[in-house]
Design a protein that fits this description.
By secondary structure, the protein is α+β, with helices and mostly antiparallel strands. It is built from four helices and seven strands; from the N terminus they run αααβββββββα. The strands form two sheets. The chain has a five-stranded antiparallel β-sheet, with no helix packed on it. It is globular and about 55 Å long. The termini are far apart.
Length: 185
Amino acid sequence: MKMKKLISGLFVFILLASVLLISCAGRSKAKDVNLADASGIENFESFLEKFVSSAAFQYTRIKFPLRTPITLMTDDGNSEKTFPFTKEKWPLMDKETLKEERITQEEGGIYVSKFTLNEPEHKIFEAGYEESEIDLRVEFECIDGKWYVTDCYTGWYGFDLPISELDETILQIQEDNKAFSEIHP
């Protein structure tokens, strides 16, 4: 009799554990499915939320080298030199960096950050002071149903950055990226 109860109890336990595992697996798949809409295209808002909160994910969703290289004026001021925009030069972007807002500064300038192109499979985010050059331009494209950064201009590598300071700037970005990665692995 005890053996029969033990076997029955073990059977019920295995049955409940199986149901629990199946339901957890179903939730995990449902979470992935929520990233894509009915057309199979990844939901941009869900992508962007994950992009700004995970360094590992962010690196997987950038098509390096970016389309537009980094262009700097040579030290003599007479010519330009270009550098590929590669992973080691990428400044990880957090939620604040890609936040849409309009801020009026005390000194009178207005800083605007917004999506200037917002198409179903192509988006461009720009930030900078009104009536001035932009500080940031990030281009997102949907490729095979998933969103990627395909191009970027950032003030970190503005035309006025002396080539002699490029290595120092890259080191500073890498330090900032390390701090970001510790908070947002």
